Amino acid sequence: MGELISAKHLKKYFNVGSGTLHAVDDVNFSINEGETLGVVGESGCGKSTLGRVLIHLLESTEGQIIYKGKDITKVKRKELHALRKEMQIIFQDPFSSLNPRMTIYQTIAEPMKISGEFSAKQIDEAVMGIMDTVGLAKRLVNAYPHELDGGRRQRIGIARALVMNPKFVVCDEPVSALDVSIQAQIINLLLDIQEKNSLTYLFITHDLMVVKYISTKIMVMYLGQVVEFTGNEELFANPRHPYTKALLSAVPVPDIHCPQERIMMEGEITSPIDPKPGCRFAARCKEATDKCRQETPRLTEVSSGHFVACHLCKIDSKV
Ligand code: SF4
Ligand code: MG
């Protein structure tokens, strides 16, 4: 399948009182149709900002977003309207992202009503159809969010995102607020729907087990920048960036006879406000050298399809 969306030198900066916050700082990647790009990193690394910039909920500061071969960073209002239908978002917290005064029917129907392009009958059919797809009993249409548990509320959030038949969906920590027992159900639901509707996902999470389960490719972010980007299996089998290695070492291994050593990240997190040149991970990296503190490492292909931004990472001879 071909590329659906890509980012080229994408930046999102915010002016804050004390300077400029580099939330997304020169990010590059591409996602093919039907794939899931998992984005991992600690909170504050820019994952959610990136997701919002990609679907135009936030305006980018610089760079390009190529969607179906066209740069959409400069589209006019009318085109934006059409794009909105194709690009949707599922939020982290189903408790706060639903309007408590709207019934389930009203919530799911809202994007179709706002678009003004559908008859009452079409909306009715679409709402009932999507309720079925996400596994919500039809008798719940007149219920209010507070009458439902967390898993069902997230199903409503998913239904609302999918009712317009999007192509690209940003899933921003969609299971983090749910009980572990419900998480698997929602993830499997997202995978089923993806297959049925040929959806492409950007899946944001801080949970490495979730990202391993759902992603085709994985991008690791640290303070607004991509530090590692490769296929799912490759990342877990052969992590190359010190930050990725530290993250992976914190995931519990099932084999107690083969305990892995947890790599602790000490040192202070560098400020993302007016960052100085040099590797942003240097303050926490045990392998940091003087070069690391002076020169920003560039994301480089170190083996086929495996990109890393680290001065100490050797490039395979075949690349
Ligand atoms: Fe560590 Fe240097 Fe690599 Fe940054 S560039 S991750 S400081 S070794
Ligand atoms: Mg977030």
Keywords:
319 residues; alpha/beta; Rossmann fold; 8-stranded mixed sheet; 4-stranded antiparallel sheet; 10 helices; 24% strand; binds iron/sulfur cluster; binds magnesium ion
Question: Can you walk me through this structure?
Answer:
There is one protein chain. Helices cover 32% and strands 24% of the residues. It is α/β, with parallel strands linked by helices. An eight-stranded mixed beta sheet has the order 6-7-8-3-9-10-12-11, sandwiched between helices. The protein has a four-stranded antiparallel beta sheet with strand order 2-1-4-5. Strand 11 and strand 12 form a beta hairpin. The radius of gyration is 21 Å and the shape is globular. The two termini are 24 Å apart. Iron/sulfur cluster (SF4) binds next to loops. Keywords: ATP-binding, Nucleotide-binding, Transport. Pfam families: ABC_tran (PF00005), oligo_HPY (PF08352). GO terms for molecular function: ATP binding; ATP hydrolysis activity. This is ATP-binding cassette domain-containing protein.
